[in-house]
């Protein structure tokens, strides 16, 4: 605690004052812009100038919201993890489809997303995995936590697939979920190179066939 | 041909003159250093300063050997492709082992290589795949050519596996070779994050089990 006294403020009632709202709005806009830039360029090449250019705020505003590029990267990575977990839920908890159909729907959606941005944007987490050895030292643990959250979701979906007989009862769903994401990140890179959804679809077809063969 | 006359010089006999030897030696040393730097940092973040620092030559020498970072990157990528194809041959053409044992031996060797450099170095091609959208426009075709060369080698090995009964006779070896490399690049990234050979070994165990199950 560094000997400092931590004062707990009671939450204020009503609308926050204008300055605070502006701060929050700019912070959110910077994170949104950061999501785009880092998904395209990775963290190491991402320039603050590119981030603020998208939303036309002065550079001073950036450093008012974030002490450093590292603090900004942490916030963007958290935002991406949460955004993606929410997206996964929207597919993997959809009980209108069978569990394996849900994963397939996610795969198709991800392909459409990549095509929409002309295969310039892949997976922000994948970009950072590639850069791991050069990233600030707090990032790897953050990446592991995010991957675990995604793995848990896929693992639960695979458990549901077991229960309804889509998967053999012997399947190790935790292990398969880890392998799913490992291969997925490779397929996303390949989709970028070939500017095509084929690598994603081929990967899923192989994975699905592999796990359903008894 | 731009209207230029192309003069074919006869190869000179004997040792090349000293200046030419020095040029060739520096060029080779720069490429070797570039292989290390780009395998660690990717292309976009790779600084010429870092490349020349490793071998202590003045910056002028770099630009004497290469017109630009792009020309250098092209040479390094070619060198990596050739180096890796040669390495693959040393494993996949080893007839002391069965075809699938040869691929497994390559996987173990790759893991040892990553561990040796404390998981800071992964696959140079993987780094560039991730960076594809931002690379000079000649790089994607070069990357595709290199991947095809690797795929052909794995495909031939899988054909041999079919012939000796390690794989079902129905296996589409070309398709499986593409999937092998797609998943491999994902596993290498994961090995970097977890600083462990486990992701490589798990990936291979899954792939091997999948392709051998009839």
From TrEMBL, chains A, B:
<dbReference type="InterPro" id="IPR036271">
    <property type="entry name" value="Tet_transcr_reg_TetR-rel_C_sf"/>
</dbReference>
<dbReference type="InterPro" id="IPR001647">
    <property type="entry name" value="HTH_TetR"/>
</dbReference>
<protein>
    <submittedName>
        <fullName>Transcriptional regulator, TetR family</fullName>
    </submittedName>
</protein>
<feature type="DNA-binding region" description="H-T-H motif">
    <location>
        <begin position="47"/>
        <end position="66"/>
    </location>
</feature>
<feature type="domain" description="HTH tetR-type">
    <location>
        <begin position="24"/>
        <end position="84"/>
    </location>
</feature>
<dbReference type="InterPro" id="IPR011075">
    <property type="entry name" value="TetR_C"/>
</dbReference>
<dbReference type="Pfam" id="PF00440">
    <property type="entry name" value="TetR_N"/>
</dbReference>
<keyword id="KW-0238">DNA-binding</keyword>
<keyword id="KW-0805">Transcription regulation</keyword>
<dbReference type="Pfam" id="PF16925">
    <property type="entry name" value="TetR_C_13"/>
</dbReference>
<dbReference type="GO" id="GO:0003677">
    <property type="term" value="F:DNA binding"/>
</dbReference>
<dbReference type="InterPro" id="IPR009057">
    <property type="entry name" value="Homeodomain-like_sf"/>
</dbReference>
<keyword id="KW-0804">Transcription</keyword>
């Amino acid at each position: 605690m560094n000997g400092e006294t931590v004062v707990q403020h009671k939450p204020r009632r009503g609308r926050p004052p204008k300055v605070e709202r502006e701060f929050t709005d700019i912070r959110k806009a910077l994170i949104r812009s950061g999501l785009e830039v880092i998904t395209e360029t990775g963290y190491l090449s991402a320039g603050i100038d590119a981030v603020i250019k998208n939303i036309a705020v002065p550079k001073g505003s950036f450093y008012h919201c974030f002490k450093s590029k590292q603090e900004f990267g942490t916030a963007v990575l958290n935002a991406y993890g949460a955004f993606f977990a929410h997206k996964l839920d929207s597919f993997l908890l959809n009980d209108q489809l069978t569990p394996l159909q849900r994963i397939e729907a996610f795969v198709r959606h991800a392909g459409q997303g990549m095509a929409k941005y002309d295969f310039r944007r892949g997976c922000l987490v994948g970009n950072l995995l590639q850069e791991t050895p050069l990233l600030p030292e707090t990032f790897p643990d953050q990446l592991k936590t995010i991957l675990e959250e995604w793995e848990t979701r896929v693992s639960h979906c695979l458990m549901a697939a077991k229960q309804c007989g889509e998967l053999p009862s012997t399947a190790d769903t935790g292990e398969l979920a880890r392998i799913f994401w490992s291969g997925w990140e490779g397929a996303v890179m390949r989709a970028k190179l070939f500017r095509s959804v084929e690598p994603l679809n081929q990967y899923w077809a192989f994975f699905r066939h592999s796990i359903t063969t008894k």
